[in-house]
Input
Amino acid sequence: EHGYVETYFKRKRIIEGINSKNRVIKNQAERMAVNTVIQGTAAEVLKKVMINLYDLLKDKEDIHMLLQVHDELIFEVEKEKVLHCYLWKWKYENPSIYGNAIIFTV
Output
């Protein structure tokens, strides 16, 4: 309709070919439009979780967030602290980090 789609957080992506008369190009643009909304929103949610985790971990010397791979976060943890960090993860795996990172209304 507008030639673009928006993620849940209103980030826009122009979808070229959405109004094409060529069926192959139009179908590809439609798939891109659907994927953008889903994957773009998921990326924005993970970014919010990363910000929440950073705020929680920034003063810790024994654990560092290294990188994001798709929908996973990779951490570097001192060998002696692995079990501690594992238990810490379960203690803090609650709405304060994940559940309330984003509240969707449907």
About this structure: Helices lie at 23-57, 82-92, 95-99. The chain is about 50% helix and 20% strand. Residues 42 and 71 are 8 Å apart (CA to CA).
